[in-house]
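Incident log, structure service

09:12 report received: a user says their structure output differs between two submissions of the same chain.
09:20 pulled the input from the user's history:
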Amino acid sequence: MHLLSAIMHWNGKSTDDIETIYNEFHADSDFVSTLLELLVDKKCQIASTWLLKHSLEKGQLLSVDNVADFHEKLSKLIEWESKLHALQSFRYLPIAESSVKGVESFLRDTIMENNKFVRAWSYNGFYLLAKQYPSYQHEVEQFLNMGLLDEPPSVKARIRNVLKVGF
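09:34 re-ran on a clean worker, output below:
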C-alpha cells in the first residue's frame, strides 16, 4: 500500500491508525515530499499535516527547500485541524526571509479563526516570527497583550506560556 492510499483509508479519527501509517511510511525516502504534495488536497490535509508534525516531533529534519515548500502551501490549508497541525510545526521550521510575507499572511488569517486552538497557536506562531524577525516584535507584543484581554482562558494560557519565555 502507498502512503496516499493509506491516508485515504484512514477514518480521520483514530490516532492509533494514523500512528500506524507513520510507523509504516516514515522511513520512505519520499515521505516528506509526498506529505508536502498532499497539503493542497483537502481530503488529505488533516492526515498529511498530522504526519508531518509528528515526524518533526520525532526529530525529522526538513531541507531548506522542503521548509520553503511547506510555508508556500500554508495558504492552501482549509481544515482547522490542518491549520492547527501546521501552526504546531512552526517551532521546528525556521522562516526564510523569502517566506516571511506568506507566513505573516497565514498567521493574520489564523489569529481570526473561530477555533480557539488555532488562535492560540497562531499567537505562538507570531511569537516565533517576531523572535526570528525582531521588526515584528512590537506588533506581536500588542497582539499578545490584546489576547490576554479578549481571549478565552485556554488561549490566554498559550499566550502566558509565550510571554514567560520572552523575546
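09:41 both user submissions now match this output. Likely a transient worker issue. Closing.
09:42 reviewer note: DSSP finds ten helices and no strands in the chain. The first helix runs from residue 3 to 9.
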